[in-house]
Write a structure and sequence with these properties.
This protein has 407 residues and is of the alpha/beta class. It has two domains: 36-59 and 291-390, Alpha-Beta Complex (Aspartate Aminotransferase, domain 1), CATH 3.90.1150; 67-286, Aspartate Aminotransferase, domain 2, CATH 3.40.640.10. The chain has 16 helices and eleven strands. Strands 2-8-7-6-5-3-4 form a seven-stranded mixed β-sheet, sandwiched between helices. β6, α10 (227-231) and β7 form a beta-alpha-beta unit.
C-alpha cells in the first residue's frame, strides 16, 4: 500500500520540499553548471577524438578507477534498474565514520561541481560578493554572475614563488562577502595554501560569510585538511570529489561537508537520484587501504620528474603539490597551446591574469615523455612561427568565452 499523504509529508522529502526543489530546478534551467571538463573543452584548439593523441588538459587521472572499484561497478550493474536510495545514506555514513564527522554534516552529490555552484548561488547576491583567487578555478565566478553578485578577484601571493592564496588581501577585498572561495591545492597552479593562512581566513572572515574550501585535489598533497572546521561548527563548507586521485571523473561522485544549516541552503536546488555505479565505486575506493598514498606517489613522482626537466630547460613552473601546474612559456600561451595541439598533444587552458602561462595536467610517465618531445620541438621555433596559431572558435555555446566580462 502506498503511504498516506501525511506520512509522506512528514518525511524529509515533503510536498513542500518537492515544490521548493522544483522551483530551484526551474531557476537553474537557464544556467549551465560549468565544470573542469567543460572549461577545458571550451579552449581545445580543435575537436579531437579522445582516443587519439595525448590529453593532459582537464586534470583527469589517466589511471581511472582502481581495479577493486571497477569490479564493484560490474557487480552492481544488474541492479541498475533500481534507484537504491539507501546507498546514498550508506556512502555518507561511511565517509563520516572514516573522517570522524557527524553523518548529518555530509551530503552526497554527483561530483563536487553541483554543491560548488549551489553554495555560491545560495550565499551571494548583488550586495554579497564572491571573493576568489586569480588565477583560480573559474566555475564559482559563473555562478556568481548568475546570482548578480560582484566578483572580486584577488591575485595570488608571491606569483613567482609560492603562488598561494593571499588571505590578507582576500579578507580586505570586501566587508560583506557572501562567499570566500579557496581551492586547496589551487587549480590551476597546484600550489597549497598553508594551514595557518586558512585558519586566519576562517577566524577573521565576517561572521555571515561562508568559506568555501574546495579540496578536489587534497589527496595529492600532505597538507592538513580542513574538515575539522566543520567539526568545530565554523561557517565552512568543504568540497571533496572522486574525480581526481580516485580516477572517477566520468562516474561523478563527491561530497559537500558542512553544518546542517549550511547544507540546508543547498536543498533549494534539488538533486536527481545518484548513479549506483558511482556510489559503489566511491565506497569501495574509500575503504581501500593504501590507495591514496600509492596514487599520490605515482602522480607525485611523475610531477617531480617533469618539473625538474622543465627547470633544467630554463622554464619556470609553479611549485605544485597536485596533479597540475602552470608553466610559463615566455610567449602567448594560446600560441603554444595551438602548436602543441597540432602535434596531438592537448595541454590545458590559459588564464587572463597569466597570459604567457599554460596549465599542464600530470599524465602517465609515457604521456609526459611525449609532452617533453613535442614541447621541445614547439619551443625550438621562434615566436613568430607560432604567432598565427590562434585556436579556432568552437561551434555552438562552447565557442563563447565563459567569462568575457572577467577577462
Amino acid at each position: 500500500m502506498l503511504p498516506a499523504v501525511d506520512s509522506v509529508a512528514s518525511s524529509s522529502f515533503s510536498r513542500r520540499s518537492f515544490f521548493r526543489f522544483a522551483a530551484g530546478a526551474s531557476a537553474l534551467a537557464a544556467m549551465p553548471i560549468l565544470t573542469e571538463p567543460r572549461l577545458a573543452l571550451a579552449q581545445i584548439p580543435k575537436f579531437a577524438d579522445p582516443n587519439i593523441g595525448i590529453h593532459i588538459d582537464a586534470n583527469e587521472n589517466p589511471l581511472g578507477p582502481s581495479e577493486e572499484a571497477r569490479k564493484a561497478v560490474v557487480d552492481i550493474l544488474p541492479r541498475s534498474g533500481r534507484y537504491l536510495f539507501n546507498m546514498e545514506m550508506d556512502l555518507a555514513e561511511t565517509f563520516a565514520k572514516l573522517e570522524g564527522l557527524a553523518p548529518e554534516t555530509v551530503r552526497v552529490f554527483a561530483g563536487s561541481s553541483d554543491p560548488l555552484h549551489y553554495t555560491v548561488l545560495a550565499c551571494t547576491g548583488k550586495d554579497r560578493p564572491l571573493v576568489i583567487a586569480d588565477p583560480g578555478y573559474e566555475a564559482p565566478m559563473w555562478a556568481a554572475k548568475f546570482s548578480g553578485a560582484p566578483i572580486l578577484k584577488v591575485p595570488l601571493a608571491d606569483p613567482n614563488g609560492a603562488a598561494s592564496h593571499d588571505v590578507k588581501a582576500m579578507l580586505a577585498a570586501s566587508s560583506n562577502p557572501g562567499v570566500i572561495y579557496l581551492c586547496n591545492p589551487n587549480n590551476p597552479t597546484g600550489t597549497c595554501t598553508p594551514r595557518a593562512d586558512i585558519e586566519s581566513l576562517v577566524s577573521n572572515a565576517p561572521k555571515d560569510a561562508v568559506i568555501l574550501i574546495d579540496e578536489a585535489y587534497i589527496h595529492f598533497c600532505t597538507e592538513p585538511r580542513s574538515l575539522d572546521f566543520v567539526k568545530e561548527g565554523r561557517n565552512v563548507i568543504v568540497l571533496r570529489t572522486f574525480s581526481k586521485l580516485y580516477g572517477m571523473a566520468g562516474l561523478r561522485m563527491g561530497f559537500a561537508v558542512g553544518r546542517k544549516d549550511l547544507l540546508a541552503k543547498l536543498d533549494f536546488f534539488g538533486q536527481n537520484p545518484l548513479p549506483i555505479t558511482a556510489m559503489t565505486a566511491a565506497k569501495t575506493s574509500l575503504l581501500q587501504t593504501g590507495l591514496v598514498a600509492t596514487r599520490r606517489k605515482i602522480v607525485g613522482d611523475t610531477r617531480v620528474e617533469t618539473l625538474a626537466w622543465l627547470k633544467s630547460e630554463g622554464y619556470h613552473c609553479t611549485p605544485s603539490e597536485s596533479n597540475c601546474f602552470m608553466l610559463d612559456v615566455k610567449r602567448p600561451g594560446k600560441e603554444v597551446q595551438a602548436a602543441m595541439a597540432a602535434k596531438e598533444i592537448f595541454i590545458g587552458r590559459i588564464w587572463p591574469a597569466w597570459p604567457s602561462s599554460v596549465r599542464i595536467t600530470v599524465g602517465t610517465p609515457q604521456e609526459m615523455m611525449a609532452f617533453r618531445k613535442a614541447f621541445t620541438e614547439v619551443m625550438a621555433q621562434p615566436p613568430s612561427a607560432t604567432a598565427g596559431l590562434e585556436p579556432p572558435r568552437l561551434p555552438g555555446r562552447l565557442a563563447e568565452t565563459p567569462f568575457p566580462h572577467l577577462s
